[in-house]
Amino acid sequence: MLAHKADFGRYGKSFQEGLVQLIFEDRPFADQITEVLDVEFLELEYLRTFVAKIVEYRTKYGKHPSTNAMISILRTELDRESEVTQQQVRDYFARVHTNEIADDIDYIKETSLDFCRKQKLKEAMMKSVNLLQTCSFDEISKVINDALKLGSENNFGHDFIADFEERYKPKFRLPVTTGWNEIDNITSGGLGRNELGVVIAPTGAGKSMALVHLGSQAIKEGKTVVHYTLELQDTVVACRYDSCITQYPLSDLGNFKDEIFEEIKDLDGTLIVKEYPTKSASTNTIKAHLARLVKRGIEPGMVIVDYADLLRPVVVRKEKRTELESIYEELRGLSNEFNCPVWTASQTNRSGLNAEVVTMEQISEAFNKCFVADFICTLSRTIEDKQNNKAKMFIAKNRNGPDGIVYDLFMDTSNVCIKMLPKPVVPSGTAAQVATNPVVVTVKEQREILKNKYDKFRKLRSNAK
Question: Has residue 82 got a pLDDT over 60?
Answer without folding.
Answer: yes
